[in-house]
Design brief:
Order of helices and strands: HHHHHHHHHHHHHHHH
Catalytic activity: heme b + 3 reduced [NADPH--hemoprotein reductase] + 3 O2 = biliverdin IXalpha + CO + Fe(2+) + 3 oxidized [NADPH--hemoprotein reductase] + 3 H2O + H(+)
Largest sheet: none
GO molecular function: heme binding; heme oxygenase (decyclizing) activity; metal ion binding
InterPro entries: Haem_Oase (IPR002051), Haem_Oase-like (IPR016053), Haem_Oase-like_multi-hlx (IPR016084), Haem_oxygenase_CS (IPR018207)
Distance between the termini: 36 Å
Radius of gyration: 23 Å
Helix content: 55-70%
EC number: 1.14.14.18
Shape: globular
Oligomer: single chain
Family: Belongs to the heme oxygenase family.
Number of helices: 16
């Protein structure tokens, strides 16, 4: 056997690791936070960021703000990822009406957050994290709403903020008025979450809602000014850790990040109630996505190819659709009978 071939146990371990990584990416984007730190981030930064990242080999310590945020929000993250809405979304159970309302809610949240970040861009805690060209999401969300709701989307009845959305927006403006440093928690959880697994979630939405492969309706997930998501996240964390904040303020930022999770959970609960009230919609060809549960991270083809391919068609899913066709079932049955006769004859 060639040395380059994996043993069965190694191959299984590799598959499990890749499944975990892809699922973590999807959850990250949905929840607006990073859930993994290793395995997806390359060791080399792209040339565009080499001059910005001061020490790419410096390992984070428990006292670094990025580590405090990661460890300090684990419980909130677990609670959020186990909400029924998030579980359904990851299974591909999302309706267009609800996705439109999700886009509206996120639009209001980002409008408020980016307004406050613009106001306080020179604040010592925020200046190192201010990347409007690379990260700004409001314009992309406006494009998505124009596609989803029409060119007159601002007059659409569904674009008013919901109760949970309004609470989220009010919190952002409140800390902008009183303690702008706490905006770090909002920027961190939202932007780094957007950069984690966005392309995977984008393809899920495109497939389930039959949106154009060219990207209309899901521009929110695209960051054309960032050549490497992994490199930029590394840069962002280094800037985060370099901010001149005392321990008390860092702890308050972690506390605010947990509040952000709770605000998102309230949004998810609203969306879940709306989902329950809407009539059922058929999936593509009436067949559940991939493994029958809708979780794209468990599709071997998509895990290996889908994230880097422009195609939104999974051959495994297509094969499943084909095999459910009555004519194909008949042909397979006849072939099986003929094969059984051949086998019987061979052993006589």
């Amino acid at each position: 056997m060639e040395e380059s071939l994996c043993l069965p146990g190694q191959a299984a371990a590799n598959v499990r690791l890749r499944i975990q990584e892809k699922l973590a990416c999807v959850l990250s984007n949905m929840l607006g936070t990073e859930v993994i730190e290793n395995g997806l981030i390359g060791s080399d930064l792209p040339p565009a960021y080499d001059d910005l990242y001061e020490d790419p080999e410096e390992l984070p310590t428990p006292e670094d703000l990025s580590e405090m945020l990661k460890e300090g929000t684990k419980d909130s993250h677990t609670k959020a990822e186990n909400t029924p809405f998030v579980k359904d979304f990851l299974r591909g159970n999302i309706k267009r009406k609800v996705f439109e309302l999700v886009t509206v809610a996120i639009y209001h949240v980002y409008s408020a957050m980016e307004e406050e970040l613009d106001k306080h861009q020179d604040h010592p805690a925020l200046a190192p994290l201010y990347f409007p060209a690379e990260l700004r999401r409001k314009n992309a969300l406006e494009q998505d709403l124009a596609f989803l709701l029409g060119s007159e989307w601002r007059q659409h009845s569904d674009t008013a903020p919901s109760q949970a959305t309004q609470c989220y927006v009010e919190r952002i403006h409140a800390i902008g008025r009183t303690e702008p440093a706490l905006l770090v928690a909002h920027a961190y959880t939202r932007y780094l979450g957007d950069l984690s697994g966005g392309q995977v979630l984008k393809k899920v939405v495109q497939r389930v809602l039959k949106l154009p492969a060219s990207g209309e309706g899901v521009e929110f997930f695209s960051f054309p000014q960032i050549s490497s998501h992994a490199g930029f996240k590394q840069l962002y964390r280094s800037r985060l850790n370099a901010t001149d904040l005392d321990k008390e303020m860092c702890e308050r930022i972690v506390e605010e990040a947990n509040r952000v999770f709770n605000l998102n959970i309230e949004l998810f609960e609203e969306f879940e109630e709306i989902m329950k009230a809407l009539p059922a919609e058929e999936n593509v060809a009436g067949v559940p996505l991939h493994d029958g549960k809708g979780d794209v991270s468990k599709c071997p083809y998509y895990m290996g190819q889908g994230a880097s391919s422009s195609s939104t068609i999974c051959p495994l899913h297509s094969l499943e659709v084909l095999l459910r066709h009555p004519a194909v079932i008949l042909v397979v049955a006849v072939a099986a009978v003929l094969a059984s006769f051949s086998i019987i004859g061979f052993f006589r």
